[in-house]
């Protein structure tokens, strides 16, 4: 009966938190026995309201443009007044050059120049032998043409270097390069064989 009364009093007047231990006349409540870890834990603090402000990415300083390569060829365009505009509106005297004001700088590009190289060699013969009826002595100049990178192929070494640079440095696939050259009126086809299948590509 005493235990029932204590239990009733605890339910009516005791703490309602399940994480606390209740001691009644030296007897540990069952919640404390089975939830000892939770009972020992401190009550969580109430969350505080924190004001969040958006931080701007701007540093407050104008970065400006990055410096342009100093070795770039520069084409300077200067706008001038015509002869009839070089008259002072104040006194009627002639205006003379005073200074130049830079308006802006722009980067221009000239599309790559594509050309073909035709290799010839001179053929010589002896006039005297030709007139006298003797068998004509024909001499050809030595063939000094650079070795062909791709057998019976059209590309010069410069074109092969351009294709490799586009593919391996810029990551441009060969089929896109093929389309690009078609726009230029040059038709190149990727040519693969067993040795070049996974190592490179020739153009024929």
Strand arrangement across the biggest beta sheet: 1-2
SS-based class: alpha+beta
Overall number of strands: 6
- Please report which band the strand proportion falls in: under 5%, 5-15%, 15-25%, 25-35%, 35-45% or over 45%: 5-15%
Helical content class: 10-25%
Tally the helices: what do you get? 6
| Series of H and E elements | HEEHHEHEHHEE
Q: In this structure, how is the largest beta sheet organized?
A: 2 strands, antiparallel
User: Which ranges are low-confidence, i.e. pLDDT below 50, for 5 or more consecutive residues?
Assistant: 25-34, 192-204
Distance between the termini: 106 Å
- The overall pLDDT, averaged over residues, is 75
Globular, elongated, flat, extended or rod-shaped: what is the shape? flat
Using the CA coordinates, give the radius of gyration: 46 Å
